[in-house]
Amino acid sequence: CSRPQKVCLCPFLPIHPLKVSTCLYIIQHPAEESRVLRTVPLLAACLPPDKCKILVGRRFSEDRYPELATVCRNPNTLILYPGAEATNLEEVAVMPSSPSVMIIIDGTWSQAKDIFYKNSLFRLPKQVQLKTNISSQYVIRTQPTNTCLSTLECAAVALTIMEKNKSIQETILRPLQALCSFQLQHGAQIHHSKEHLLKNGLYDKPMPKNKRKLRRMELLVNNVKI
Predict the structure, then answer these.
(1) Calpha distance 68→125 (Å, rounded)
(2) Which residues are in the DTW domain (predicted)?
(3) How many helices (H) and strands (E) does the chain have?
(4) 147 — phi, psi (to 5°)?
(5) End-to-end alpha-carbon separation of the chain, Å?
(6) Sheet order of strands, 23-28 included
(7) Of 73, 30, 27, 35, nearest to 53 (Cα)?
(8) What is 5-185's CATH topology?
(9) Nearest C-alpha neighbor of 107 from the set 23, 27, 47, 36
(10) pLDDT tens digits for 187-206?
């Protein structure tokens, strides 16, 4: 896990990489590389190297990333990105020919949105989303809403659905739970979502002057899906 021994997460990782048929392509925003408490390295440690490929960048052209372009054009590829055009993954997973590749964008919501809409390759695969009401266990990082999940959690839920194996989710979430536990023991605080803070009058930062951002906060308070 490459962490100091007293907070080592290796005992919480699977002894052997999980056997899965689905290959994940993690498209990681460069800003995520510098974050100390990121979840993608834990995800990669749970899976075989050929089943979890990480590409770092903001722009992905067909010329520079021919392998990714081929993957995006494959009819068995999905991209996990919620929205009006997205199909619930549970509906896709029951089809006779199950998808074999999933693309997940790793970054803040604004970073992920920028990557998704400014790279035409990512509009080629079938767009899917998770229909789940589970709350994030990544409690040491602030999420926009109560049901927003980290990249590792999204991958864990998605793989469980696609592989039809509930133990996958438990195995992948174990190191994340240990990470949060260690950080809380060493002085970290539980981070409630922006949605929770706004609804309970606990948001102590200046309200944004940008009208678009202010409108998004109003939608969070009023339970409007964004």
Answers:
(1) 11
(2) 1-188
(3) 8, 6
(4) -105, 10
(5) 35
(6) 52-56, 23-28, 101-106, 77-80, 126-129, 87-88
(7) 27
(8) Alpha/beta knot (3.40.1280)
(9) 27
(10) 555 554 444 444 556 545 66
Backbone angles phi, psi at 183, to 5 degrees: -65, -40
Which of 78, 81, 121, 80 is CA-nearest to residue 100? Answer: 78
**CA 39 – CA 90 distance, rounded (Å):** 24
pTM for the whole structure? 0.78
Please say whether the beta carbons of 185 and 139 come within 8 A: no
Q: What is the pLDDT of residues 129-174, one digit of tens each?
A: 988 767 666 555 555 555 577 888 889 999 999 999 999 999 998 8
Q: Which residue ranges make up each domain of the chain?
A: 5-185, 192-222
Task: Compute CA distances 113 → 58, 85, 128, 200, 226, whole Å.
Answer: 11, 14, 15, 28, 12
What is the helix (H) or strand (E) element at residue 79, kind and residue range?
Answer: strand 77-80
Residue 154 DSSP class: H
User: Which residue in 80, 21, 46, 27 sits closest to 171, CA to CA?
Assistant: 46
Q: What's the one-letter identity of residue 174?
A: R
C-alpha distance from residue 34 to each of 10, 31, 55, 107 (Å): 21, 6, 15, 12
Where b means 16+ CB within 10 Å and e means fewer, 72-105 reads beeeebbbbbbeeebeebeeebeeeeebebbbbb
As given in the structure block, the two tokens for residue 125 are 């695969």
